[in-house]
Write a sequence for this structure.
């Protein structure tokens, strides 16, 4: 299998995110859309990607591996961040858990709690916590994205609006140089915003690899979060960082 280093990066990004626009890839690599299309064509010819309107995605045969691939990315540091974050959640809390693989690591740390209420649209969170009768799990209804193990749609926004959480916890697809948490799709960003709007405290979990990625939909400034759990160095003093080195 012959791939250039950039084509390998594109494939890894597809495995992590499922699909992406050509313009987004061009901006990520600071090259022209024509060059990206040539890379995409090479991947498509090898059966590793497929062209869709305005972008590229994994072929259907590979999409079911997407969540597991993302779950394994930076897994050690995600586990450490999740453990520290979970240690700050009091028994008896009502907690929102949003989209992304980091939420499953947090759920694993909460599985032994004596009293907890979890409100989520994350299918993996529900699977992790369903064995503990002391943890009440409220799961949103809507469009199931099997490759992401979550539920999305306008019904999910209304679902979160029906609760008020002690703590709302979200991840993100990337963090910009100007310290904005970003998501890849507008509906993903809207879900995180709904969690933030209906929580007394808002916590972000974002490992350092998020600063090396690109996503286009704004969620919130890092300084707007009550706490930011990360192993990223040298963040401004107005960001409440709970770092794990």
């Amino acid at each position: 299998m012959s791939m250039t280093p950039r084509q390998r990066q594109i494939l890894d990004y597809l495995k992590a995110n499922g699909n992406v626009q050509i313009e987004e890839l061009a901006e990520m690599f600071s090259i022209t859309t024509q060059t990206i299309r040539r890379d995409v064509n090479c991947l498509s010819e090898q059966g590793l990607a497929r062209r869709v309107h305005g972008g590229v995605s994994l072929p259907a045969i590979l999409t079911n591996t997407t969540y597991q691939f993302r779950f394994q990315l930076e897994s050690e540091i995600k586990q450490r961040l999740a453990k520290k974050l979970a240690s700050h959640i009091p028994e008896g809390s009502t907690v929102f858990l949003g989209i992304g693989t980091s939420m499953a690591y947090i759920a694993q740390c909460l599985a032994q709690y004596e009293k907890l209420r979890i409100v989520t649209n994350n299918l993996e969170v529900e699977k992790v916590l369903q064995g503990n009768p002391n943890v009440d799990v409220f799961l949103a209804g809507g469009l199931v994205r099997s490759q992401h193990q979550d539920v999305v749609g306008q019904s999910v926004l209304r679902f979160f609006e029906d609760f008020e959480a002690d703590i709302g916890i979200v991840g993100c697809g990337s963090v910009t140089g100007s310290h904005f948490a970003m998501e890849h799709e507008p509906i993903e960003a809207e879900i995180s915003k709904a969690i933030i709007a209906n929580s007394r405290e808002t916590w972000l979990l974002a490992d350092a690899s998020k600063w090396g990625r690109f996503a286009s939909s704004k969620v919130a400034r890092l300084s707007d979060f009550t706490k930011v759990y990360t192993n990223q160095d040298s963040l401004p003093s107005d960001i409440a960082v709970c770092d794990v080195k």
Remarks:
- The CA atoms of residues 18 and 75 lie 19 Å apart.
